[in-house]
Amino acid sequence: MTVATTAPPDAAQQAAAQQAARRRSARRAARRRRLTVLAFMSPWVVGFGVFFAYPLVTTAVLSFTHYDLLSSPKFIGLANYRFMARDPNFWPSVRNSAWMILIAVPVTVAFAFCVALTVSKAKRGATALRTVFYLPTLAPPVAATLGFVFLLNPRTGPINQVLALLHLPQPLWFDDPHLAKPSLTLLGMWGVGAIMIIFLAALLDVPVHLYEAAALDGANAWQRLVHVTLPTISPVILFAVITGVIDGLQYFTQGYVAGTVAGGGDAGAGSGSSLGYPEGSTLFYPVWLYQQGFQYFHMGYASAMAVVLFVISLVVTAALLRSARHWVHTASGSW
Amino acid sequence: MKSRHGMLAATTALLLLSACGGGSGGSVSAPPSPKSHKPVTITLWSGFTGRELGIIGRAVQKFHASHSWITVKSVGGQDDDKIVKAIRGGNAPDAALSFSADRLGSYCSSGAWIDLGSYIKRDKVDVNSFPKPSQGYTSYQGTRCALPALADVYGLYYNTDMLKAAGFSAPPKTASELMRMAIKMTTYNSDGSIKVAGFVPMFGFYEMVPAHIAPSWGAKWVGADGKSSLASDPHWATMLKWQKKFVDAIGYDKLKRFTASTGSSEFSASNLFETGKLAMNVDGEYRTAFINSEHPELHYGTAPFPVDDAQPGLYGAGYVTGNLIGIPKTSTGDKREAAWELVKFLATDTGAQVLLSNGLRNVPTTVGALNSSALTPDPQFAKFLDIYQNPGTDSTPVTASGSADQDLLTAYVDKWQAGSGGDIHAGLKKVDGQIDDELAQSDGGAP
Amino acid sequence: MVTVASLTRRTPTRAATRQRRARFLAAVGQHSVAIVLVIIFLAPFGFIVMTALMSDAQALSGSLWPHPFRWANFHDVFTSTRLMRYAGNTMIYALLSTAGVLISSIPVAYALSRLRWRGRQLALVVVLAAMMLPTQVTVVPQYVMFAKLHWVGHLAPLIVPNFFGDAFSIFLLRQFFLTIPQDYVDAARVDGAGEWRILLSVVVPLARPAISAVALFSFLYAWNDFFGPLLYVGENTSNWTLSVALANFRSLYHVQWNLTMAATLLFMLPVLILFLAAQKAFIEGVTLTGVKG
What we know:
The complex is a heterotrimer.
Chain A lengths: L8 H54 L2 E2 L7 E2 L3 H8 L3 H32 L4 H13 L2 H11 L6 H8 L14 H11 L2 H13 L2 H9 L4 H12 L1 H16 L3 H10 L22 H10 L4 H29 L8
Antiparallel strand pairs in A: 1-2
Chain B lengths: L1 H17 L21 E6 L4 H17 L3 E6 L4 H10 L5 E4 L5 H7 L6 H6 L9 H5 L2 E2 L2 E2 L2 E13 H6 L9 H11 L1 E2 L5 E3 L13 H4 L20 H17 L1 H9 L19 E5 L2 H8 L5 E4 L15 E8 L6 H16 L1 H11 L6 H4 L8 H11 L14 H15 L5 H18 L6
Parallel strand pairs in B: 1-2, 1-3
Antiparallel strand pairs in B: 3-11, 4-5, 6-9, 6-10, 6-11, 7-8
Helix pairs in contact in B: 2-14, 8-10, 17-18
Chain C lengths: L3 H4 L9 H36 L3 H6 L10 H8 L3 H31 L6 H13 L6 H10 L7 H4 L7 H12 L3 H9 L4 H12 L1 H17 L2 H7 L8 H12 L3 H21 L1 H13 L2
């Protein structure tokens, strides 16, 4: 806000008074604006404090205690963290979750991309195809998992019936510790619709002239895919991978339901015997955290596990974003 | 809206300051017997469902008839995990009936269930009216936070028609006999899958778990030094090796396919033993009542579980575990007093015990009810009363870590029977370490 | 943003006779891939429907086609379980959560997109961080808090937090609000409208697609949620939602696969109907989440 300085003295005085008045009202306006902002932001400010910041701090504090929600927390130093090394289920649960992130996520993202590519190439009925591929995403995870456990039942499931008709081997699927996670991956691939839609939109947004230029240079379909399509949609791939990793870190429902239902147990009770069935292969990190925290009520230990999960999430997300600089092409500044 | 924010913020601050301090733990002293009988409604949780829940309902009616001021809402399908959670979450019932006596240690030591000692003294309940084993598993380190409310005893069920068809006249008495007979009675479909099983030796199938058959090998959970003794007691390895041999003789893969199709049919009318798809099975005495109501046409017998060939003297013993009934700490005032009346009634009233035993076909847990002429055991059920009173009959230890010992062993035997358990001695030693860790730490350490 | 119309846009081809043949073959290949994919994606639904119509014994026999069709399963599933009660609870949870998310997230998104203030960028980053962290990180103290309030066992712990802004919805709405031309807002401001007026009479009507998408996603999230209901109402069967009920269905009611699959189907149905009725909003919404990566 600049004011002219060439005005005569009396006028200058008047201007100064005006300016002060303007400043006062500007200050008032600013205060009003600040209040407006605060009013608009208030739901989130309170929500962030009560449901996020405070629990986050408390989790860290509780991780140094023994706490069962019946008696007051007892400070035990680093004992919870030390116990992780000896906890027979801790490392297996880390490995199971890592499997989902390192294997299931890339497979699912690649599959989503292929499906999107197929839809984008369809000359007719693209809308119908899109609907069909999106539909499974809507199936509630518990319902979808139950459905898959039934479909993949080794003896009575329709899939193995079909395989038997074709004289193909009939795997044990959810009852085989080596196939339980691949079976869950199949379930994830079935529900790939959302990422597929995003890929599809991105694919259709790739400027046509890029393909034309590549074709003029004599690039074949594969080269066009690698050198034109993938780089152009790389921000969307990054998005899909990040989303997948975040979901992978909290992968719970499908693993929990598949393990308990296939194990013949009761999913609500999470009875210790069928936990992670078969042979602990579906005991994912969040499942074990839930079991420790809300079945055994070792809430101090569960808090320590939550802190570790927090750190891992930060590191993984940061690493992904950092690596993205090398392979993601950004056309313009994003948000 | 505004006031709610305020309330939440205030609560938050309070919580932060008090570091989420717990409520009233520690000892409980009973108030003097109430004079007035103000109408009160209490909730009772149990794991029973369907027909069995109806039996509980009848016992509750009987209670209401003599305690007209107390109305009891009986809720079924509430197993121990739900009870534990509800006590923490603050929405627990006034009285809870648990199926698993091995939880007692954690209920007592954590204060989740109140110490009944002062109530027992006030109302002069005679603890000696409970048989010895039931006295044991309702008390942990001198704290009695539950009373016994019937017990479950495990043994062998056998289908007499199927045995006869295979040329057998009596149930097996030794482990090797069981294996031989079972293999002979197992039949297969044309594709090689099991059609009818003689016996399913897979751990995790129905009630076939290490704890239920361990007494038949005399295998002990805890050694003289108070430490887990899975590796040091050689009977565990003997039992597991027998079981693995049995599994391999039929084929792990075939058994897995067979059991995978059964899902959670155990407590339904499509139970494999009840429907003749299984010739022999390890199960609890309650199965007799299921068979009576669901498949009365089944011809079957019951016997003690076959024992280790090297220890024929063990024959007749079995596994026992009791139902517990107690009062979660969240029940207070009039409700707690009423809950105690209900607990006392279900645990000590001969009529109630007999009614429950005749209906559920569970073993009664008072001397009076065991000797009552109103108890009407059929021959199959009577066998379990014998097993219950056998001196070799054993239970799982009551520890502060609940059933962690069994959970940890289960995790190992799952691998063991699949063939990925490695050296058995090393494997059991590792489980021992894990159990001891849990034990050492559940009294205040990590976790 | 990509519109639906553009999805069916065809890539113009530079016709060359030599290429046409290859293109035709490629098209045949692509279409057969598409057809195989369609079969794979629809097969699970087909098997579930078939099983839901079988008798108990038949479902376990491994046959693929119901014989006879047992429509009574859909009746039985209501009479033998408390399905209506669970559906009612799920509906309460989903509707109230959706209302809460909308009421609380729209103003926040507005402040993060159309108001200029210091710390806005930081606030946005914090919102994003909250969106990215696994729910399990903060779950222990939240549970303790609700236990002390005696809310555990009720639907309140599931619903109430939604009235305090949902990070994902805030982010999605903000992205959309940014695309609204400043001219509209300025015009309203010149007319002397306050920020609330601008939000309600200018931004909200223009942002209807994004708001519908947020509403749909919130509804869907609550409808499908399992972890929350398991944690907070797991031990109170009267307040179970469909997710928790279905996971316990088989052991609790001793029912077999045919009824379980019938219930599964009924559980999916409202969402599928919602989708078919509001397909456009769904697809636009999903696209919106990914468009800015």
